[in-house]
Amino acid sequence: MPLTLLPQDNLPRIIHAAPIGICITNAEGRFEMVNPAYCDFYGYAEQELLGQHFTLVVPEAERARLTEQHRAFIHGEADQECREEHEVRCKNGERRTILAEASRLVDAQGEVKKVTYVVDITRQNALQRRLAFLASHDELTGLLNRRAGMSRLDEEIRRGQRYGTLLSVAIIDLDHFKRINDRHGHAVGDEVLCETAALMRQELRASDALVRLGGEEFLVILPGVDRPRALEAIERLRRLIELTPMGQPGLALTLSAGVANWQAGESSHLLLERADKVLYRAKARGRNLALMT
Ligand SMILES: Nc1nc2c(ncn2[C@@H]2O[C@H](COP(=O)(O)OP(=O)(O)OP(=O)(O)O)[C@@H](O)[C@H]2O)c(=O)[nH]1
To answer: Which domain holds residue 156?
Structure first.
């Protein structure tokens, strides 16, 4: 079927009905046209926007940069394939994320304008951030997951290999955790895992990494920490967990830990194997104990 070109006078109607926000700003950055989708998205009436500077809908911290970008775009200095993600502010103060694409337009009087097409990507962005977080974190405790933890450990080992920096690790296993689930239920078990993770995270330094290896087993990575200090740090965690009431009144929790100091040339696998062996010894000696290789 042959294509029929729409008559020119349909163009305003198309812009009016477009499901994406479209606005035209003049050389000074003031709105000259906003379509209904644009107004709906930001929560302003058309008359509230016309004549206003476009930075009305931009967070304060971004205003200077975007004003300069607008100027450069109008003057043909900037990349004319302008496609950017921004955070914006709606009239009610809500923050949203948009994908903005722009084109340069010269009107009948020879004045240059910027046409911006706006798509709301707030939900996709939030979903993407959530997926990225879940790829490297444990959903229950929010700690690094095993995969991310292993990659962090390998990174620290590479650093140690290159710069000769110290590195210690500890594998921590909660004692008789099965009993907690059996006596108090799985939901309380989950709560205890979360509280334990949060407590340990609080107690450790920001430069240390805390990883949930799985179940009730955790890995602590202590970069720049020598043998005695590593044992001290883990002993502090052991005491803290022993003394802090968790989950439900009367619920007692302890941990056992195997601490190992990395030796030059040692792989992460061998290092963890040593830590695991000494953890096993701590369990065999009656639990609630941190031992070092
Ligand atoms: N609530 C809860 N329980 C979990 C989770 N992951 C693992 N567990 C439980 O943790 C328990 C671990 O049991 P075991 O490996 O026998 O170890 P334990 O009872 O802690 O005994 P020891 O390690 O020998 O001191 C099991 O009952 C698992 O079901 C979790 O995400 N939530």
So the answer is: 137-292
